[in-house]
Amino acid sequence: MSHIFHRGGGGAPPLAVSAKGLWVVDEAGHSFLDASGGAAVSCIGHGEPRVVEAIRAQAARLDYVHSGAFTNAPAEALADRICAATPLGMEKVYLVGSGSEAVETAVKMARGYHVARGEGDRHHVIARRQSYHGNTLGALARGGSEARRQPYLPMMTETPRAAPCFAFHEKKTGESEEDYAIRAADTLEAEILRLGAETVSAFLAETVVGATAGAVPPSPGYFARIREICDRHGVLLILDEVMCGTWRTGSFLACEDEGVRPDIVTLAKGLGGGYQPIGAAVCTREVHEAFADGRRGFVHGHTYMAHPIACAAALAVQDVIAADGMAENVGRAGEKLRQALQARFGNTAEVGDVRGRGLLQAIELLEDPSRKASFDPALNLAGRIGDACQRHGLLVYPGRGTVDGWRGDHVLLAPPYNITEADVAEIVDRLGRAVDEALADVPHRT
Ligand code: PMP
Fold first, then answer.
1. Atom of ligand 1 at shortest distance to CA of 139?
2. What's the CATH class of domain 325-441?
3. In the chain, domain spans
4. Distance, CA 41 to ligand 1 centroid (Å)?
5. How far is residue 395 CA from its own chain's centroid?
6. How far, in Å, is the centroid of ligand 1 from the Cα of 55?
7. Which of 2, 226, 345, 388 meets the CB 3.0–4.6 Å disulfide criterion with 434?
8. Which among 133, 209, 397 is the best mutation to test ligand 1's pocket, defined by most ligand atoms within 8 Å of the CB?
9. Is residue 266 helix, strand or coil?
10. Structural contact between residues 366 and 372, judged by C-beta atoms closer than 8 angstroms
């Protein structure tokens, strides 16, 4: 019997024993092609010797010091690297241990900024109905995944909401995508005005939506309008790039492609590539200056922040990405992946959409795409596809949309940045067989 508190009601999952490149091997000797890096984590593949050596060397040199007493060389170098990687002018990096911690940090940083500037009434963080920001209570309160929130509702603070930006489902017939983008963004302004701008601290959103909807890039112009609205009302813009940042969609920050500079951006998964737990809240000089001038500084902190071994691992991951030109491969490989998905699922009536940016791609399944009608949630189609994939030796990240009611099942793919065309073909072939199998298994109403 396993003494690990496994999540599900069922038995323990298979025991993984090793991983190399794109492949994970379990105790029984089965190999799994890792097409999602867990939840978009493993961005350079598994078992990279250059990262393993960096971890070993750092552990031997300096394992841990408390960040209240010391800074350390890998943390300094990693912060420099993060700021140099984006042309947007982000200047200060707060290093933590996970995506949820990064979001908690960002939300508190925004509040601290306003307090330090004498605007202590600003406390509301407006988020969107379509979002995932983490599982700690503060981050969960801001997230829009009802399934994840439901058991904890009485424990969470109310989060005001703006509309998601999801043209596939929300754009009206005849409406241009640009007009739709403005309509979606303007729901933020309406919410700010309803609450009273003087009480609003920040707007929090994923630049490209991951877990709750399946690789949804924003409509053109959406974030530019959001930026204008935030500026007009003195509200900070926090972009959650825990999943879509660190080259996942092609640029170091996905918001670079929107031409929008956030006040704070969160990173995690692709920062350490799974070699160590690490996250970051990265802010502009203007945000940081509020604390520098304040009397108390930023009242926050975690025991493992700026952990030397985690930072050394993340730095090595970023070195590998640079040395092997992996970031340059993301756009190209992402296009190949999307084309392969479109070709394979073009004749699958239930695949309503193939979408994404860079190497964050997804398919969405609907019972009747022409009416955008989803399968009965009780069928758990996404879960069934995930299970079928595992039987076919493929790891994907399945999910169910939860925007404004039921939206559809999706399968998210987030392979490593160095993926080849042959890998893409293998992934899509296995996924195709798994999807066919799962669809044959579920009753259709139409
Ligand atoms: N934000 C986003 C956008 C995420 O995708 C995730 C993780 N799926 C988180 C925050 C939370 O990160 P973690 O699980 O590392 O706490």
1. 10
2. alpha beta
3. 51-323, 325-441
4. 10
5. 17
6. 23
7. 388
8. 133
9. strand
10. yes
Residue among 137, 206, 269, 278 whose CB has most ligand 1 atoms within 8 A, to mutate? 269
**Count of Cβ atoms closer than 10 Å to residue 278 Cβ:** 30
Residue 206: name the closest of 351, 121, 102, 347 by CA: 102
Q: Which residues pair with residue 267 across a beta bridge?
A: 280
Q: Is ipTM over 0.85?
A: yes
Helix 308-323, helix 73-85: angle, nearest 10: 40
In the chain, count of helices (H) and strands (E)?
Answer: 14, 15
User: Residues, the chain, total?
Assistant: 446
pLDDT along the chain (446 residues), means of 10: 79 92 98 97 98 98 97 98 98 98 98 96 96 96 89 94 95 97 98 98 98 95 98 98 98 98 98 98 97 82 97 98 98 98 96 97 96 91 97 96 75 98 98 98 80
Residue in 241, 168, 173 with CA at minimum distance from that of residue 208: 241
Single-letter residue type at 48: E
The rounded distance, in Å, linking the Cα atoms of 326 and 320 is: 8
One-letter identity of residue 295: R
CATH topology classification for 51-323: Aspartate Aminotransferase; domain 2 (3.40.640)
